[in-house]
Design goal:
The complex is a heterodimer of chains A (152) and B (171).
Chain A: H1 3-13, H2 19-31, H3 33-52, H4 58-132
Helix pairs in contact in A: 1-2, 1-3, 2-3
Chain B: H1 2-27, H2 30-46, H3 54-76, H4 99-117, H5 121-133, H6 137-144, H7 148-170
Helix pairs in contact in B: 1-2, 1-3, 1-5, 2-3, 3-6, 4-7, 5-7, 6-7
The chains are: A mainly alpha (152), B mainly alpha (171).
């Protein structure tokens, strides 16, 4: 049988044959028993394959949907990561502040110890100055006469 | 996020049967098919933002499935495992069809499977994209990156082969 006719039959079965060629094909089918058999067999194969098509396995569907939904978990996980990042940032900020405060406190402490040392030195200086003065001698001055009256 | 998930589910339910049957007939290995289909849909979910239109999704799915299959065979350098043929014990006896018809159909299906199993990949994929994907010659040529005429000629070769075998069986 002519390959061109077979191709036309296939094109018709695939829904790809031109309108103009359709009438020619039907004419050929009417007179050519071999073409009719081929036409019938093409449809038989198509129907067989259609009915042989299997349903999608339900366990596979479950797996795909579960795995597909896991990105949502990943998103919540990423949210967790975001929260962790924020907490870490706050902690770092607090650490910096604490460090700076500690620095300042130690600075104040140094200043205070310096002031205390200065005060102590000043105290010593004052004491030394006091000690440098000559000893004070007190001479009493009797301005009133002492009258002694005997008791006879 | 919810829109993306809903879009994915809509595409998944619309295409899952086509893709699964395409991969299953390409590999004739159920475990491998399930792995490939799973990868394809997970890749789809990750690439949802990149896919422009609903019509391009199916192209993308078939192309990705095909790439996954070829990738597997390139890496493993092996061919398909045994595939469960229709067993006569599984035939539904409550069906309206006569037992002869059922047996004949089971035989035809077995022959179809047998031929598909040993068919060259480039012929098989054209045939399966047509029969399970329902694509036009032009669409198949886009997916496979070949000429539409080549698609037509490969399809013709496959069909001739299959029909010759089935004709012998029927006669």
């Amino acid at each position: 049988m002519d390959d061109k006719l077979l191709l036309m039959i296939e094109e018709y079965a695939d829904g790809e044959l031109n309108r103009e060629d359709e009438s020619f094909l039907f004419e050929q089918l009417a007179v050519n028993a071999e073409a009719r058999t081929y036409f019938r067999n093409i449809n038989l194969v198509k129907n067989e394959l259609e009915s042989a098509a299997e349903e999608f396995p339900s366990h596979l569907e479950k797996i795909i949907i579960t795995r597909m939904q896991s990105p949502a978990d990943r998103i919540s996980f990423s949210r967790l990561k975001l929260a962790a990042a924020v907490v870490s940032a706050v902690l770092i900020l607090l650490s910096i502040i604490t460090f700076r405060l500690l620095n300042e406190v130690s600075g104040y402490r140094q200043e205070i110890s310096q002031v205390i040392t200065q005060l102590k030195e000043q105290n010593k200086t004052i004491e030394t100055l006091y000690n440098c003065f000559p000893p004070a001698v007190i001479h009493p001055v009797y301005s009133n006469e002492i009258i002694i009256k005997p008791k006879i | 996020m919810e829109i993306r998930t809903n879009n994915f589910l809509e595409i998944f339910h619309r295409t899952k049967k086509k893709i699964f049957n395409f991969v299953l007939r390409m590999t004739y290995d159920r475990m491998l098919s399930e792995d490939i289909v799973q990868n394809v849909y997970l890749k789809l979910f990750e690439s949802m933002d990149k896919i422009e239109s609903a019509s391009s999704v199916e192209f993308w799915l078939f192309t990705t499935a095909r790439n996954e299959i070829y990738h597997y065979y390139r890496n493993k350098k092996i061919h398909s495992d045994k595939y469960d043929y229709t067993n006569l014990e599984d035939v539904d006896i409550t069906s309206d069809e006569s037992i002869e018809d059922i047996v004949e159909k089971a035989d035809i299906r077995d022959h179809l499977d047998e031929q598909l199993r040993f068919m060259p990949m480039e012929q098989k994929e054209v045939f399966l994209l047509k029969e399970f994907g329902g694509y036009s010659y032009k669409e198949i040529s886009t997916i496979l990156n070949i000429d539409a005429e080549l698609v037509k000629s490969r399809l013709h070769k496959v069909r001739k082969k299959i029909i010759n075998r089935i004709s012998r069986l029927i006669n």
